[in-house]
Design brief:
By secondary structure, the chain is of the alpha+beta class. Helix content is 47%, strand content 20%.
């Protein structure tokens, strides 16, 4: 088994575990996914740690993990108690084309997928809408003749729309005009194509036909962080991918993702992830079930 839970990153990477139950204590898990993971807790209390930050976990909570985020869940348990949760894990590339007809939802999703989230643990309290969405999908999949692809597409669209409106902050998309939303998407596309290169705001502004001030202001308003901070996070995520899916050396990865020296890259990686890139890579061959 592996700390990094392998997924088929082809066009059908999609997995739902509905109301899974554990009654053996303590229950502990430390792993990461190549996809996005959404975990909703029905029963059980414990602690979740995401890249060094710890939060209490209890019923009614939604945990959101981005690709390659190392996270630990610790449920000490009680006699007669149980840990019940539903988990959706999917390749974000599955969702992106589904959202293309909806510019604001699509722009929000790009931030949810690739940006820095100020919060990743949400207490939904008595709001049962997410639970209902997951139950409806499970019921639909039990029906004779269910169309798997259609049901997956409906689940993702409805669930992500719910998260956008009611749960996960993603900048101020509701305040942006349609024209400005297009600017945001163009900015995100530009960053995705150029994040490995040294940031040149003037070049970005010229290629997008926008002013440098407008780009900086709009990007921070939309994401909640600066353009340079976003690019730093994007480089680290690419580094995680290469550490796990290639045999490239640390030096080669450091050079590729941002023209870093090995020592500087290792310092940045450990500061953000809490472990060195060497340890992160070795985790692929270690057991992740900590029971």
């Amino acid at each position: 088994m592996s700390y990094i839970d392998p997924m088929d990153l082809g066009p059908t990477a999609f997995r739902v575990t509905h109301r899974a139950r554990n009654t053996q204590w303590p229950w502990k898990m430390l792993h990461a996914h190549q996809g996005i993971e959404l975990l909703y807790v029905y029963e059980g209390e414990g602690e979740v740690t995401v890249e060094g930050r710890s939060f209490p976990m209890r019923p009614g909570m939604l945990l959101c993990f981005q690709p390659y985020q190392l996270h630990k869940i610790d449920v000490p348990g009680t006699s007669g108690g149980q840990y019940v949760r539903s988990i959706l894990t999917f390749d974000p590339r599955v969702a992106e084309p589904l959202l293309s007809p909806f510019p604001r939802l699509h722009a929000w999703f790009l931030h949810f997928w690739k940006g820095t989230l100020p919060e990743q643990v949400f207490d939904l309290g008595s709001d049962m809408r997410l639970s209902d969405i997951l139950d409806d999908y499970h019921l639909a999949m039990q029906s004779p003749g269910a169309d798997t692809k259609e049901e997956q597409a409906l689940l993702l669209t409805v669930l992500l729309r719910y998260l956008q409106i009611h749960v996960v902050p993603g900048g101020r998309m509701s305040e942006l005009s349609a024209k400005t939303t297009v600017h945001v998407e163009k900015m995100m596309d530009w960053v995705e194509a150029n994040y490995k290169q040294p940031l040149q705001l003037e070049r970005m502004a010229a290629e997008l036909h926008l002013s440098s001030y407008y780009i900086s202001h709009l990007f921070r308003k939309y994401t909640g962080i600066s353009l340079s901070a976003y690019i730093a996070e994007r480089r680290l995520r690419e580094a995680c991918d290469q550490l796990l899916t290639t045999t490239r050396s640390i030096r080669e990865i450091a050079e590729d993702v941002g023209s870093f020296s090995s020592s500087h890259f290792c310092q940045l990686f450990k500061k953000r992830k809490g472990i060195s890139p060497q340890v992160y890579r070795k985790m692929r061959g270690q057991a992740f079930d900590l029971m």
